Amino acid sequence: MIPEESYTSLPSEAERLRKITHLQQRARALETEKADREQAQRSLRRKESELADLLENAVEGAQQSGPDRKIFWANQALLKLLGYAPEEYIGHCFGDFFSDREIFDLYWQRLMRGEEIYDFAAELRCKDGSAKYVLIHANGLWEDGKFVHTRCFVRDVTDQKRAEQALRESEANLRQAKDKLESLVEQRTAALRYLSSRILTLQDDERRRIARELHDSLGQYLVGLKLNLDILKGSPARPELWSQATEILEQCVSEVRTLSCLLHPPMIEELGLVSSARWFVDGLSQRTGIRVSLDSPRGLPRLPAVIELVLFRGLQEALTNVHRHSEASVAEVLIRQDLRQVVLEVRDNGRGISPDLLARFAQTGAGMGIGLSGMRERVRELGGEMKLEAAGNAGTWLRIALPLASEYFATA
């Protein structure tokens, strides 16, 4: 039998039930906590998987490197950017892919100092030998003061870099073109100033020349004619004086026509370029003794008046210079027309022109006298081209080419 005092030490039935209930509650709580922990772990693994998938398939390149600087993970975007297979890139030192190793050393030193790196500019080598310009954003993962690995994102800015380079080159070319244009404007301005000054001088010279021609030739003839007429008033029956007066009068008419033609040949408007050129060539040959030949096509159609006048003035200026400066004995004139232009060439066997003067004339239009300078400007105004060449003592060659407008052919 159980002693009576033992009944007082045994738990009551109610207390035993309470303990059992408490234990059951604890067990259920542990089961709930275990289920919650497992669910949290599954959620964490799912988020880690989603994050890994996001990084793996991101548009921007991403990679991780360990303390030994070797790459142990890189996403598809970075591998595609540089053109490497995973085994050709992963496991290698990241610095091996930098075009400049010093740039990588600077990048790694900043990481080891714990810096957060933004927009770090670098040039990475691709498998095909080309290079990509990139901006790197990176930081390091540290645990207990020890470096674990990098978290590195790589953005391709090659197109932007090339566009900036192209823009800089374009700006440099624009500045160079601007400087060249300003220099050309200065040269042309100087040439125009010189041309204006020479025009004024030439006007004075031309006035003096015409005055001298009128005084020395026509004036003398008129004085002689007046004297003859005064004598004939007292002795009208002297046939030799009438004959002499008639001869003087014809010389006056001839001089007036010559001066008029030199100022503006009227026959160019009536008969055209070829006939006017032949008249001038023949007259120059007779007056100077220079053998001048003219080679021109027969039946050359009439050209626009402004073109015929410019070409005649070019011929006149060229042959005048041959007579005054070249000491030539022979000169050749060529006139040719094709489908789109008419060409005048004048060539002589004189002493030529110095290379310095030719270079100066080609650059600024100055140095060859007002006649040629003005002629070059008139040719340019019509969209044409004027060339002047000289080979030592082998003579001088002048070529003027003027374009013919399409409407000319519709009416020619």
Task: Provide an overview of this structure.
The protein has 412 residues and is of the alpha+beta class. It folds into three domains: 57-156, Beta-Lactamase; 157-263; 267-412, Histidine kinase-like ATPase, C-terminal domain (Heat Shock Protein 90). Helices cover 58% and strands 19% of the residues. It is built from twelve helices and ten strands. Strands 2-1-5-4-3 form a five-stranded antiparallel β-sheet. Helix 5 (158-234) packs antiparallel against helix 6 (239-263), helix 8 runs parallel beside helix 9 (305-326) and helix 9 packs antiparallel against helix 11 (370-381). Residues 406-412 have low confidence and may be disordered.
Task: Please tag this protein with its features.
412 residues, alpha+beta, Beta-Lactamase, Heat Shock Protein 90, disordered C terminus
Summed up:
58% of the residues lie in helices and 19% in strands. With 412 residues, it is of the alpha+beta class.
Topology, element by element:
Blueprint lengths: L12 H44 L4 E5 L5 E4 L1 H7 L3 H4 L11 H12 L4 E9 L5 E13 L2 E11 L1 H77 L4 H25 L3 H4 L2 H16 L2 E5 L9 H22 L3 E8 L3 E8 L6 H10 L5 H12 L3 E6 L5 E8 L2 H6 L1
Helix pairs in contact: 5-6, 8-9, 9-11
Largest sheet entry: 5 strands, antiparallel
| β-strand amount | 15-25%
Q: What ranges have pLDDT less than 50 throughout 5 or more consecutive residues?
A: 406-412
Query: What is the CATH class name of the largest domain?
Result: Alpha Beta
Per CATH, what is the topology of the largest domain? Answer: Heat Shock Protein 90
What's the number of structural domains? 3
- N to C succession of SSEs: HEEHHHEEEHHHHEHEEHHEEH
Report the end-to-end length measured between terminal Cα atoms: 154 Å
Overall spatial form: rod-shaped
